[in-house]
């Protein structure tokens, strides 16, 4: 006969599960505007009613995350629900996945540039408005919206956590950002000269459009394959949440509709619409 007594779970005597079984209203400080954000004790994120910022619960682990009796204590259905919410909230605060998603839109723009350059080289009339529209996308979405998050936030965070700027991948990424801006500046200048009757302007524009496309394809491959995995290993869960919130601050400053607007721009260019 087994003399071991089965442990008896008494939820009412567990202080850690009280706020889960009977949720209470709590408050988190919004990192964007400093206001108080209402959040129930069984929630992991909420939206600030004042500024629209998504605010995440602090990193203090709840007992249901580590206690072996959690499912029995709070109920199997409630446990599954909370774990799903926790996973969803954590996934929403993944800064490198956010940057990878932006890469996909940039790659669509690159494909459009290469397609249009090939068409012009095959005899299609050069349309400066098409390339100027692409330049606007690059300068606002690819540079300010995307590279800005890397240069002003991700890279400094990684440096503070021991990733060297010179000997590591950060220095290479910064150099390539600069090279990309040079291609875009020359592309924009060539479009302006074409409008003024410059004889060789279209060929210069195509050369720089292709140069930018080649550079960014290699650049994105390096970031997705080397830099972002390094960041994932380096940043703690708390770091990731704070960095993601800082990313949201950038998007709020540039306009909450920036991603949607420039997704529409790429879609129109894919259809061949320069907006002339």
Concise summary:
The chain is mainly α and 276 residues long. The protein is built from 9 helices and 4 strands, in the order H-E-E-E-E-H-H-H-H-H-H-H-H.
Fold blueprint:
Layout: H1 18-21, E1 25-29, E2 36-40, E3 45-47, E4 54-56, H2 70-74, H3 76-92, H4 95-121, H5 128-160, H6 169-195, H7 201-234, H8 237-254, H9 258-270
Antiparallel strand pairs: 1-2, 3-4
Helix pairs in contact: 4-5, 4-7, 4-9, 5-6, 5-7, 5-8, 5-9, 6-7
Structure commentary:
- The protein is mainly α and 276 residues long.
- It folds into 2 domains: 11-92, no CATH class; 95-270, nmb1532 protein domain like (Four Helix Bundle (Hemerythrin (Met), subunit A)).
- The protein is 64% helix and 6% strand.
- The strands form 2 sheets. Strands 1-2 form a two-stranded antiparallel ribbon.
- A hairpin with a 6-residue loop joins strand 1 and strand 2 (36-40).
- Helix 4 runs antiparallel to helix 7 (201-234) and helix 5 (128-160) runs antiparallel to helix 8.
- The longest helix has 34 residues, at 201-234.
- The model is unreliable at 1-6 (pLDDT under 50).
């Amino acid at each position: 006969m087994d003399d071991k007594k089965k442990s008896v779970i008494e939820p009412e005597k567990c202080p850690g599960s009280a706020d889960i079984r009977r949720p209470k209203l709590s408050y988190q400080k919004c990192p964007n505007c400093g206001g108080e954000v209402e959040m129930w004790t069984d929630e992991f994120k909420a939206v600030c009613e004042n500024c629209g910022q998504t605010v995440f619960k602090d990193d203090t682990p709840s007992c249901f995350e580590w206690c072996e009796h959690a499912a029995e204590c709070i109920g199997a259905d409630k446990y599954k629900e909370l774990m799903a919410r926790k996973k969803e909230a954590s996934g929403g605060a993944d800064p490198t996945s956010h940057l990878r998603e932006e890469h996909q839109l940039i790659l669509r723009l690159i494909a459009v540039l290469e397609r249009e350059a090939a068409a012009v080289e095959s005899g299609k009339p050069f349309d400066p408005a098409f390339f100027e529209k692409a330049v606007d996308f690059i300068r606002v979405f690819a540079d300010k919206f995307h590279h800005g998050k890397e240069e002003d936030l991700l890279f400094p965070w990684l440096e503070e956590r021991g990733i060297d700027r010179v000997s590591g991948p950060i220095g290479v990424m910064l150099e390539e950002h600069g090279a990309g801006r040079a291609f875009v500046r020359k592309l924009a200048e060539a479009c302006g000269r074409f409008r003024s009757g410059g004889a060789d302007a279209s060929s210069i524009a195509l050369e720089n459009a292709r140069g930018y496309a080649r550079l960014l394809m290699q650049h994105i491959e390096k970031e997705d394959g080397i830099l972002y995995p390094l960041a994932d290993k380096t940043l703690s869960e708390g770091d990731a949440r704070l960095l993601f919130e800082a990313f949201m601050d950038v998007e709020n400053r540039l306009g909450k509709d920036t991603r949607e607007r420039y997704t529409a721009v790429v879609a129109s260019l894919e259809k061949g619409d320069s907006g002339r």
